[in-house]
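call fold target=ABC transporter ATP-binding protein
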Amino acid sequence: MRLARSQEPAAFDFRKPTPGEQLIHFEHLTKSFGPKRVYDDLELDVRAGETLVVMGGSGTGKSVLLKCLIGLMRPDTGRVLFQGHDLTRFTEEQFIGVRRHVAMVFQGAALFDSLTVGENVAYPLREHFPDMPEDEVRQRVAEKLTLVNLPGTEKLMPSDLSGGMKKRVGLARAIATDAEVILWDEPTTGLDPVTTQSINELINSMKTKLGVTSIVVTHDMVSAFAVGDRLAMLANRRIVQVGTREEVRRSTVPEVRAFLDARRAELVPGGAS
């Protein structure tokens, strides 16, 4: 049912935040898929300018958080607040404005196979700024590809790219509109250690060079500690701890300890911890 005009949420009006202030707030979220309950009164804050890592095992709903933020999914109850705007009440049309400021780098990069690298990066510019002159589009595409260390690759096709290169093109596309918030969905899954390290460095460089706020969801413990200013542990349908890298390393929360010990065992020959 469509809201009456007087009840419609206001159009999204982004303002430049002060570093460290609350930018995003997931408030009392519940979410189920059929009989499977994913969230039960989930609470989480994201601060402007930080890289927040959401850790957790497979199937715990890490990626669902990102999708609720950009309107690809809706929580059953609760609110997703972005600079005080309740996004759960936004229409699809209103989310267009949100997606100019919040961009997502999908797990598989999600490039359009039939488009060149340049056309992929230009896609959100043409979608959000249809009147932008073509020479400005080309300039913006070149700038973003240079920023992710892929200069001069505009004419390549996705099939010509390695997995790491695809992630970089996905990031270039995500930041094409100068998004202030970047969402990373399992950015290092399926990548070799060298490429994983380059992606971690890329995530860190986006904060240094652009001052962006990032939310990274991952089950990769090495990557989590390499990029996260704060780490949030998702387990048992809620956030069980949020803290700095050192606070999480020293955690006595059972779910956190079990997750860290299991991941550490996977990295040590013979499973020793």
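return ok
The mean pLDDT is 87. Strands lie at 22-33, 36-47, 51-55, 77-82, 85-86, 102-105, 181-185, 213-218, 230-235, 238-244.
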